[in-house]
Amino acid sequence: MSAEMLLSKLQNIRRSGDGWRADCPNGHNHARGSLSITQAQDGRVLLCCFACHDTHGILSAVGLELADLFPERIRDPSPEARQRAREAFKRNAWAAGIRVLAREASVVLATAGMLRRGHALTANDCDRLSLSIQRIEGVRGLLG
């Protein structure tokens, strides 16, 4: 699916950076322009409503499914092509995992610095640190 197919089902669309902003069709009216839509280079359609964060609900409201956000796979039956695809997937997973680890390590480092300087952590600080730990464990599970 192209982003244009999704955009044709939305209202109040405007360009925003490399993508678009629109009103979320998920039934909340308090956040106009809260839906962000981008088409990635590989053809995936990325969307996020900053008000409801309910991708499934958004897609359901416009008659689409999660699979509609992804391009159709090109299948090459040769063993060599399948091996190349597996290796490319692993490289991408490792690259994404390293980016997550770098970002979350900086959160852990900042938290350690705050504690070292004697600052008390707020509930939000503790929640963010907990999220970092979950994400680091998730990457460890993915790459381990």
How far apart, in Å, are the first and last alpha carbons? 33 Å
Number of DSSP helical runs: 4
| Domain module count | 2
Q: What is the typical, i.e. mean, pLDDT?
A: 87
Rg (C-alpha, Å)? 20 Å
Order of adjacent strands in the largest pleated sheet = 1-2-3-4
Low-confidence region ranges = none
Strand content: 5-15%
Q: Shape, please?
A: flat
The percentage helix is 40-55%
SS-based class: alpha+beta
Helix/strand order:
HEEEEHHH
Largest sheet: 4 strands, antiparallel
* Number of E-type strands: 4
Description:
This protein is an alpha+beta fold and 144 residues long. It folds into 2 domains: 3-69, no CATH class; 79-143. It is 49% helix and 15% strand. It is built from 4 helices and 4 strands. It has helices at 3-7, 55-61, 79-116, 123-143; strands at residues 11-16, 19-23, 35-39, 45-49. A 4-stranded antiparallel β-sheet has the order 1-2-3-4, with no helix packed on it. Strand 3 and strand 4 (45-49) form a beta hairpin. Helix 3 (79-116) packs antiparallel against helix 4 (123-143). The relative contact order is 0.10. The model has no long low-confidence stretch (mean pLDDT 87).
